[in-house]
Amino acid sequence: MTPTGKNRTPALATLPGTSVWGELLKYALVIGAMVFLLARGAESLGYNWQWYRVPQYLIRVQEGRWLPGPLLEGLKVTLQITGISLLLAFALGLVTAVLRMSRSVLGKMLARGYLELIRNTPLLVQIFFIYFVLAPILDIDRFTAAVLALSLFEGAYASEIFRAGIVSIHRGQWEASFSLGFGTINTYRYVILPQAIRRMLPPLTSQAISLIKDSALVSTIAIYDLTMQGQAIIAETFLTFEIWFAVAAIYLAVTLTLSVGVNVMERRIRM
User: Does the pLDDT of residue 75 top 60, yes or no?
Assistant: First the structure.
């Protein structure tokens, strides 16, 4: 586990001859080299860059008002799907982790069966199964089917994070809580989870970022999220490189914002 002490020194500062600015410069050079190689490759193919056409798919002006373009509309759908799926996945993951550690044989069997089924089948297959098989039976729309598939998939991995965080709390905390008259639910709520969340926050953040990226697969069932909007624009305009670069940049901006926000929250929790 990562140390949680207040006097922890960033790993970068312990390396001799390194600095933050130096690392940022190296990163900028690598990115610049990649952009240069891509530009040269596109030039050798005779590709005509038309970046000036991209902004209209981000922001459009209609009757003097600024309105979101197709890409931002798709981003809105992506955020809706990932936001709901994230909450459901974390709730499902916590319940599964508690069942695995309970004394109920049935609970352990259900949790184990769910984990093995989800983790050993591809997400794309799960999306297709829920949308083409379960959705007609349960009479649910494609948005709900996408949320259900993502929640089940990410919840299986989140459960392992919750279980590891709970197990990492010393047994004495349980005994002290029970000695004060707390039941199991109150022990989880007031004693175990508040301590475990500090250790679970970094891996849960990684899982949330993974969910944002995995949400691109819902475009396969004709949900007009960010990826699907990008595909539709490319089919209409043939701006392949420009649109995919713009889509990638939007995904990167969302995930980086999430990472920075959670890092700030983590530092405040540890203060």
Answer: yes
* H helices present in the chain, as ranges: 20-44, 70-101, 105-119, 123-129, 135-138, 142-167, 171-179, 184-187, 193-214, 226-237, 240-270
User: How buried is 162 (Cβ within 10 angstroms: 0-12 exposed, 13-18 middle, 19+ buried)?
Assistant: buried
Burial class (CB in 10 A: 0-12, 13-18, 19+), 3: exposed
128-145 tens-digit pLDDT: 999 999 999 999 999 999
- Exposure string (b/e) for 185-206, b if CB count within 10 Å is 16 or more? eebbeebbbebbeebbbebbbe
Note the pLDDT tens digit of each residue in 174-196: 888 888 888 878 888 888 888 88
Longest dimension (CA), the chain: 75
Mean pLDDT of all residues in 41-53? 80
Domains and CATH numbers, the chain: 55-270 (1.10.3720.10)
What is the pTM for the complete model shown? Answer: 0.81
Record the tokens describing residue 87, joined without a space: 């909450």
Take residue 74 and report the two structure tokens written for it: 């798709």
